[in-house]
Amino acid sequence: MSYAQAPPAYAAANSKNGYQPIPQDDVEAHAESSVPGRTANAQSPLLGPDGMPLPRSEGDTDPDDFKFGVTVEQSSPEVRQMFLKKVYATLFIQVVFTTAIGAVLRMDSIRSWIFQHSWIIMLTSFSSLVTMLVLYVKRHSHPTNVILLAAFTALEAVSIGSAIAYVNEVVVLQALLITGFVFIALNLAVYIWPSVDYSKLGPWLFYGLFIFLGIGLVQLFVPFSRGVDIAIAAGGAVLFSLYTLYDVDAISKRLSCEEWCYANVMLFLDLLNLFLSILRILNGASNDD
Predict the structure, then answer these.
(1) Would the pLDDT of 44 be above 60?
(2) Contact 278, 239 (CB under 8 A)
(3) pTM of the full predicted structure?
């Protein structure tokens, strides 16, 4: 709260002591001028006069420090490389872990137990969804985000492994290899042609996912023919291929470096959904033979 004119008692006391009140506008102008680059960076307070991210606190000048609110694209090349290495190394561990869990769940004794307790698939799927939502909220909280990422990976591994336990192992291997080649190619496309802006796909991908989930809900109650199911799976493969392009573009440009756990969830879900779509296509085609 400020006064356009000082109260009478305050003005009288100042006149006796020889003090003159400083206008509020002069105080604010002095405060702004005392901070280098304050006016020039008013719209981007996290960036210094040279355009580089400001340290979190005095004396914090580590070149590899992950600055809050600074995107990967704005970070130094060293920080960007460290971020991407962490994301893809963690993704590789997730894939290896999920593959190992899937192999264990194909054992006859465990597969029979899953058949008798099919609720385990719904439970792990619902739990992974809840964990993912909590991880999004806590994506900046360390080590909570790492713990939630590990829990999410374990739940997804059990859910996917249980769902494909009865699919022919040759078909599963084919789907795994095809998914790997497609996923790597899509990632390379984003980094080889960085000028392409995939962020414009966002609204269309949302509508496509909404339609895809709606069709899947209908299929739960009114099963489609094998040909229609293969067509739906093909549409899902295209949808999640585009989602991969969109998410990789976001990770390399628009996300901040401290959101690496959230970036892992995005890529892991894209990879799993692409794998399941390709698996549905191959499984449907093999059953026709």
Answers:
(1) no
(2) no
(3) 0.72
